From TrEMBL:
The chain crosses the membrane at residues 12-33. The lineage of its organism: Eukaryota, Viridiplantae, Chlorophyta, core chlorophytes, Trebouxiophyceae. InterPro entries: Glycosyltransferase_77, Nucl-diP-sugar_transferase. GO terms for biological process: cell wall pectin biosynthetic process. Keywords: Membrane, Transmembrane, Transmembrane helix. It comes from the Eukaryota. Signal peptide: none annotated. One of its GO terms (molecular function) is arabinosyltransferase activity. It comes from Chlorella variabilis (Green alga). Residues 117-366 form the Nucleotide-diphospho-sugar transferase domain. This is Nucleotide-diphospho-sugar transferase domain-containing protein. It holds the Pfam family Nucleotid_trans. One of its GO terms (cellular component) is Golgi apparatus.
Length: 701
């Protein structure tokens, strides 16, 4: 395999590797905790080249970044130079194909922000072309003369061999550049928040570092034998197995590490390792191979009492450190548990695993946490540069926003008092109610924003029950082996399928939007409160001259014509903030608005699609009709408005029809399953237990 850079690109080669990276990175699990503060942290405002800021008034930053606007020059001359691999002190590497280019570009921007030399190995010619166009230092991986004949989608062996290509590529770098001490590899669906170099320097004994799917920082801190938690088997003395995630790893240029890389690549091209007879587990990909290799031979032992976190694996031939999830966070630890920020640190890197919506889901979470660097200044409400190509230009509408502040926890607490006097409500029921409440608020807010021609800032999402691909979530409404409690603030994708919002062109921003340092202060400060009153005020349309200028009041059941009239005096404010404990306040479009109301109802149903539901009651290919339970969706706006009533969770009529296949019947008896707690009061009491995190004591049932 040869490494070549963009200027030497030649004939078209197979582009069938699309989806390969996702195969490595898309872990479909879901989950959630207790701290009520919003702890979203952002890229430091002092960082060079914040996304959406104009680098032209910062000469130094502009020079550092490959993305600066340059006058068009002939394509062949524009390839970004590759770093000098014989002199750089370390190197960041990723792998990309054209289908994942946007992620690759975002990855590169985060790497540029931490000032690291990097290169991207391009897996297809489309990627190479995009690298040229966008000034990214890319090397085409040359797969050899057979490449054009490989159909990756259908040829499992070839797919597996692609994993070997990645491993070989890194090995070649190390072998061809003996003075290159350290290579850090991360998939394009990772982001770097700060440099990892000190971290590696301070751990000189280890030759190989890998991230993991472990979900508990606590378990990693305690570092004890027989901890009994899943996915954290890298702690020596635990039988549960490694859950190394090769989407992020680092290799030192040592003989031991190179030998391990050779063996790893060898496993991936060895036909004996293919498990084609087991369709559920045939994917001996690079990740499974590495886990198998490290588990297979002798397990792991600590290097010494002084350095217990460096472990010997692979027959004691390799010194491995697993990167702690606090600092090299997977998607659950970062975006659902929010552990790093709760512990007062920013992660060094985040790998956007543990989510359900593929690239749009990853992009949404990165946006929510200020780590998506691909949006232009206009996205943040900065005026578009005059005459900008494709920009809205000088005559463009300034960004006008509508936010909605709600107290979901207060609503759920009130419902608990009414329905379970003297007792507690099961977590699943709290979640179902809370999500139904938040869906109603979201619908009203979306409709009001459209009526006003504003972009909606969606409210933060609060959950009492996590999602998980496995129904074991119905034990405690949290994934086992985690550090969070309930309720927890969840990413937006817990409430609504974010891919749909994008697909339907809905104008929205994430709940954290106004905290982004790219948002101009002039926008942030241009703000008016819009209180929601339970009833129409005696004087609904006060003349601005008689008010003291703080905002406006709307009321339960208000319709479009009155809404526009009430808000007219505050329309010049960039941000209107709806406030008040009146769910379902929006009365619709008024007597003339039947068609618009129907349109909005249809849009909302399309946005939710098959979601707007709890997802995870069954396992395997049976009982899929009993896998979901819809949250209560708001009454259509086209219907006559009635005050919103908290919905009541009813016993599903299918409880006794679930089959015994894959244990599905058994799951209906788990305490957080509505078929269980709605029929058994003592289970309901157990299901109300929200105590503590979930990283101790596995309860077998
Ligand atoms: C209700 O649940 C409890 C466990 O909390 C169990 O011991 C009991 O048998 C259940 N009752 C019925 C009728 O299933």
């Amino acid at each position: 395999m040869k490494i070549r850079n963009a200027v030497t690109r030649r004939g078209v080669e197979g582009g069938g590797a699309v989806g390969f990276l996702c195969g490595v990175a898309c872990t479909l699990l879901l989950v959630w905790w207790h701290h009520r503060h919003s702890m979203v942290f952002f890229v430091d405002a002092e960082s060079r080249t914040l996304p959406g800021t104009d680098p032209s008034n910062d000469g130094e930053a502009a020079a550092d970044v490959a993305q600066v606007q340059e006058p068009p020059v002939p394509r062949a001359m524009r390839a970004a130079p590759l770093p000098d691999l014989d002199t750089v002190p370390h190197l960041m590497v990723s792998f990309g194909n054209a289908a994942y280019f946007e992620l690759a570009q975002n990855w590169a921007k985060t790497v540029q922000q931490i000032g690291s030399p990097f290169l991207i190995a391009a897996l297809d010619e489309g990627m190479m072309a995009l690298c040229l166009e966008n000034q990214l230092p890319c090397s085409k991986i040359d797969l050899g003369k057979d490449e054009a004949h490989i159909n990756f989608r259908d040829n499992f062996q070839a797919f597996r061999a692609m994993g070997a290509v990645k491993v070989r590529f890194v090995l070649d770098l190390l072998e061809q550049h003996p003075a290159l001490p350290l290579v850090v590899v991360s998939d394009t669906d990772a982001v770097w928040l700060r440099p990892p170099w000190t971290y590696f320097q301070q751990r000189p004994a280890a030759e190989f570092f890998s991230s993991s799917d472990c979900l508990s920082h606590q378990v990693e801190v305690e570092w004890r034998r027989d901890h009994g938690q899943p996915r954290c088997g890298h702690v020596p003395g635990n039988g549960d197995g490694h859950a190394l995630n090769t989407g992020l790893f680092a290799v030192r240029n040592t003989e031991g590490a190179k030998a391990a890389m050779r063996a790893w690549a060898g496993m991936l091209v060895d036909p004996a390792q293919e498990r084609a007879d087991d369709p559920m587990h045939r994917e001996m990909d690079d990740q499974l191979a590495l886990n198998t290799m490290f588990e297979g031979q002798g397990g792991s032992v600590s290097l010494s009492a002084e350095d217990p976190r460096t472990v010997l694996v692979w027959d004691n031939k390799l010194r491995l450190q697993v990167l702690p999830v606090l600092l090299f966070s997977n998607g659950h630890v970062a975006f659902v548990q929010r552990t790093p920020w709760k512990m007062g640190v920013a992660p060094i890197a985040i790998h956007t695993t543990f989510q359900r919506y593929h690239i749009p889901g990853k992009r949404s979470r990165l946006r929510e946490f200020g780590l998506w660097l691909m949006d232009p200044p206009e996205y943040y409400g900065a005026p578009a540069p005059a005459g900008a190509l494709g920009g809205a230009g000088a005559g463009a509408q300034p960004l006008q926003l509508l936010a909605y502040e709600l107290d979901v926890a207060a609503f759920v607490a009130e419902a608990e008092r009414r329905r379970y006097p003297g007792a507690r409500m099961p977590l699943f029921e709290k979640n179902w109610l809370g999500m139904s409440f938040q869906l109603a608020a979201l619908r009203d807010a979306l409709a009001a924003a459209r009526m006003l021609g504003r972009t909606l800032i969606v409210p933060p999402v609060w959950c009492w029950c996590d999602y998980d691909e496995h129904p074991h979530i119905l034990y405690r409404c949290r994934i086992k082996g985690t550090d969070y409690g309930v309720p927890f603030e969840a990413p937006l994708d817990y409430l609504i399928p974010v891919a749909q919002l994008d697909a339907y062109g809905v104008a929205y921003r994430h709940s954290s939007f106004l905290q982004h340092p790219q948002v101009p202060a002039s926008l942030r400060h241009s703000r008016a409160a819009v209180d929601i009153s339970p009833s129409r005020p005696a004087n609904p349309f006060p003349a601005p001259a008689v008010t003291i200028g703080h905002g406006a009041t709307v009321w339960a059941g208000i319709q479009l014509p009155d809404l526009l009239r009430v808000l007219q005096p505050v329309q010049s404010s960039a941000v209107l903030v709806l406030r008040g404990h009146v769910p379902g306040f929006l009365g619709g479009y008024g007597p003339q608005g039947g068609a618009e109301a129907a349109q909005m109802d249809e849009l909302f149903a399309e946005l939710l699609g098959n979601d707007g539901a709890f997802c995870c009651f069954s396992w395997g290919d049976s009982d899929q009709q009993y896998d979901r339970l819809r949250y209560a969706w708001p009454a259509p706006l086209a219907e006559e408005w009635r005050p919103w009533e908290p919905p009541v969770l009813r016993l599903p009529e299918w409880c006794d029809r679930v089959s015994a296949k894959h244990g599905n019947q058994g799951f209906t008896r788990l305490r957080q399953h509505p078929c269980a707690f709605l029929r058994n009061a003592s289970l309901a009491a157990e299901a109300a237990d929200d105590s503590g995190p979930y990283n101790t004591g596995w309860e077998p049932h």
